[in-house]
Amino acid sequence: MVAMFLASLPFVQNSRDTYAMMRCLGASQRLILQILLAQTLLIALFGSVIGCLLGFAAQAGLAALAGSLFLENLPGPGWLPIASGMLTGFATMLAVVWPHLSGLRHVPALRILRRDAGDEGAIGWLNFAPGILVVALMILWQAGSVKLGGIMVMAFVGLLALIGLMAWSGGKLLHRLPNTSNSALKLGLAGLKRRPLMAVAQIVGFSLGLMALILLALVRGDLLQSWQASLPPDAPNRFIINIQAAQIDGIKRFFAQAGIQAEVLPMVRGRLLAINEQPLNTEKYQDERARRLAEREFNLSWTAQMQSDNQLLAGRWWSAVDSGKPLLSLEQGLAENLGIKLGIN
């Protein structure tokens, strides 16, 4: 949104002469408004489509990568995120850019003779209201809770007000600075003094962009720290996969020489095809996560002795006489998601 706003301002300024010429040639305000609306919708369409395609490709790649490395699958790309992305793109574009573009229909034909005509009141505070409203609605939508979303909206509006007040106060202080002999500094201060509202808007926009970057960095660090704190001190932190049968003895000797306690376990890829000799029907699962689990491949392993960090909740562990029988042990959460219970036909 910040990029849209900052990009729209020079476009509006550079387009004043064009629409002033159109007024001289007899174009009505309605015709100019239709042209501006068509341009805005086309830009929103192309931008939203490109963004959705990039997001679709990234989600498909991440889902495939996660499916080959982890038990939990990321959801595959679907049409609902594309629809929400298109809606967000159009709403953001119209809310942020349209209030500034629509002002071009008021550019007078006199601007052809007087270059300063049509510059007055180019930006008003009401032009920012639709963008703030769209952001508030997006926050409420993503929060999924009116209370939580309301708190975030109030915090966002308060932050905007605080940044705007600080920027406006800084602009007022600039008026009291003594004149300087430095030409570059003098021109910069003159520009800030001549367009105080533009300066405040730009400062607010850059502040929000920096806030988003800092927030991402803080959230990333907090998530990593929370995940690391949840792991036991002796949790494995290195894994070696795709060890061939001829390499097992060498791997074990390497671990023994390095003083590393490691366990080598077999692993094979498998897929759930039937339950109680009935072909698996993934459409019967209403939960999307259960449907994804039923459709994916699993990393399967086997051992004669149950590991010490596992707990048997139902049934019995197999013995030596059960070797070769088609027996299976399922993790509790996986069994609950797939609706598999012990002894239930």
List the helices and strands and how they pair.
Elements: H1 2-24, H2 29-69, H3 79-96, H4 98-101, H5 129-143, H6 146-175, H7 183-194, H8 196-230, H9 248-258, E1 268-271, E2 274-275, E3 278-279, H10 288-295, E4 297-300, H11 332-338
Antiparallel strand pairs: 1-4, 2-3
Your description of this structure?
By secondary structure, the protein is mainly α. The protein has two domains: 2-113 and 123-230, no CATH class; 245-338, no CATH class. Helix content is 59%, strand content 3%. The chain is built from eleven helices and four strands. The protein has helices at 2-24, 29-69, 79-96, 98-101, 129-143, 146-175, 183-194, 196-230, 248-258, 288-295, 332-338; strands at 268-271, 274-275, 278-279, 297-300. A two-stranded antiparallel sheet has the order 1-4. The protein has a two-stranded antiparallel sheet with strand order 2-3. A hairpin with a 2-residue loop joins strand 2 (274-275) and strand 3. Helix 3 (79-96) runs antiparallel to helix 5 and helix 6 (146-175) packs across helix 8.
What would the keywords be for this entry?
single chain; about 350 residues; mainly alpha; two-stranded antiparallel ribbon; two-stranded antiparallel sheet; 11 helices; 4 strands; about 60% helix; about 5% strand; elongated
